[in-house]
Design brief:
615 residues, alpha/beta, 6-stranded mixed β-sheet, 4-stranded mixed β-sheet
Amino acid sequence: METSRDWSVEWFESAKWLGIAFLITAVAFVVIAALLLRFTRWGRQFWAVSGNYYRGPGAWKTWLFVAGLLLMALLSVRLSVLLSYWGNDMFASFQLAASALQSDDAEKLSQAKTGFWDSAKLFTLLIVIWTIKELVYLYAKLAYDIRWRVWLTEHITTDWMDGVAFYRSRFIDNTIDNPDQRIQADTITFTEQSRALALGAVTAVVSVVSFTKVLWDLSGPLTILGVTIPRAALVIVMSYVLISTVIAFWIGRPLIRINFLRERTNANFRYALVRVRDAAESVAFYRGEDVERVGLLRRFAEVIRVQWAYVYRMLKFVGWNFVVTQSAYLFPYLIQAPRFFSGAITLGGMNQTATAFREIQDSLSFFRESYDDFAEYRASLIRLDGLMVASGESRQLPKLAAVDLDDAVRLDKVGVCKPDGEVLIDDLSLRLVPTDALVVKGVSGSGKTTLLRALAEMWPYSDGEFGRPAGIETLFLSQLPYLPLGDLRTAVEYPVGSNGITDEQLREVLNKVHLGHLVDRLDEEADWAKILSPGEQQRLAFARILLTRPKVVFLDEATSAVDEGLEYSLYNLIRTEVPDTIVVSVAHRSTVDQHHTQVLTLAGDGSWELAPVAS
């Protein structure tokens, strides 16, 4: 029995095809990618988000991964083509057997049996290769996703933290919602969909090209209403898919905006739930559960409103795609039936026509059916790009000029304003040296805490020059200290880490700040911000001063949650244990004054007064 391919040399031909197809596809892929990156908005956003992953040191590993994935995608197409020829041979053997049985031709029947068993052996070999390829391909795709996600998460997290962008981004015009969700969830969608859409598009295009030749060889003329269509099977499938794809794009276009809104509303609702959890004690004290419930359900109602918009649009989109896909199954048989009945094509050719028709239809339909995936991908890309743009803009906001000094603090013509431009502090100049201690006083709203924010390079509405020891030699303590997740040891050592600090040192320091009841809980992991009282948290912050021994420490109402006796003990501890440390305190209590040598009084209208602390 004559086969559709010369299988004895097909392995060599397939290897040659893979080599040529890889070179052509790789060049076309790079050229098209470059054009998309240059001339489309989402391409430029993609490059802004992940461009560094594909260039610079180590990028060759990424490109090696891409080449391997591309090669396996092409191998998938080639195996599909070979399986279509196998199907031709298999059904041709059935047709030959039926003809032999009808004519009682033993020789033909023997040929048919031989052709069938040869086809069965060929199928076994092809499926073994296909299975191995699929497993390797699956591993490579997942490994690529993980590797890219690791890089992207580190890249975006670093960018978000750099220059205190995570705080200062609240001062830009277009503030960014839910950066946590963007870093955690959108990075997954972005990396996985980028790979899936790119490889899917390559596979679809190569499949169309490969099966077009198959369908071209099998197609014949078809007369409809007096009009003869040459190569009818090929012409009809191309026209059918093109028209259906244009309509699908028109129906699915709103999905980009809807997916963006879905991500935002769900993230807002999740954030509101987290806020209630974090502020559970305060809400319970206020008996504010009814108010919180109304607020949560209002946000949830917005989630559902957007979700229904998604449902209605998806019904139209999926419904259209379903009709188009199901209708396509009958077309090849309708087109080729006249040629089959006239004997112009065999049963195997009929089967291969249907296979090629479906492959082309499915490949071209990839762009239509993936539109909702692209919409979700586009929304994630917009959110990641928006986060990086916001981080960059926040770093461009003004801040005090910082100068590194060895062991002094110098403020030179420092000015601080409100966001609306109203001046709080004007031309503040002073100098502090080791053992100096300054307390900042003033009525509420006069700019005391805002001054510390400006000195910490957090507040953008400021100017002038600020000299201080660099890095962790200058320590800022907020009114309610931040306690990171993890064990108690991590909370005490924050922000410098262990850095050679022993358990004995930690226990000694905790005892000194009256937290001796915690010395045996250093390895206990818990949400310490919820376990420790505000007073205990403030004492823990003083423990950090004793551990890090900074040259300068700024304290913002750092003893507001402890009684006057503990306040005296803590300040006295600092002046005794680290006497050379320059201390700057913001405080309302007059009892804090005795631990300082100078007082800076802010009026809130720009004026200020620096004087010795009264005895």
